[in-house]
Design goal:
Length: about 130
């Protein structure tokens, strides 16, 4: 069984554990005993929250809505280009206060910091929020 060290993605605490991988499938987790935050312990989400990785309905590629209302897979480059062009159009027509960014308490502090930098430096908006502020 292969063990892959990772950081839990369920909150911003940053607990570490090893994913137990067998035949390229996650079969469980093992806490990292010497981690300064989790200290070998995990919450229920840390222990059980890996089942989504191999779920049959999980999206693995970007989808774009077609003119008939259906969705089709596109490349990441196509998706990013489309998003960028739409954001530029909105900002040009309505101003930077017409856009905003929603982040997540499941992101690390560093990821949330990058979201703030993206919102303020790239999009030129102060409209940024996430669910952990409540």
């Amino acid at each position: 069984m292969r063990k892959v060290l990772t950081t839990c993605g369920y909150c911003g605490t940053g607990c570490n554990f090893y994913l137990n991988v067998e035949d390229n499938e996650i079969v469980g987790v093992t806490p990292k005993n010497d981690h300064p935050i989790s200290k070998g312990k995990l919450c229920v989400k840390g222990w059980q929250g890996h089942s989504f990785v191999h779920h049959k309905d999980r999206l693995k590629k970007p989808l774009m809505r077609q003119s008939d209302g259906s969705f089709s897979e596109v490349s990441w480059e196509t998706a990013y280009s489309y998003i960028g062009s739409k954001l530029k159009k909105i900002i040009k027509e309505k101003g930077s206060e017409a856009v905003g960014v929603l982040s997540s308490a499941r992101c690390t502090n560093e990821e949330n910091y990058l979201m703030v930098k993206f919102a303020r430096s790239v999009l030129r908006t102060n409209n940024i929020d996430h669910c952990a502020r409540l």
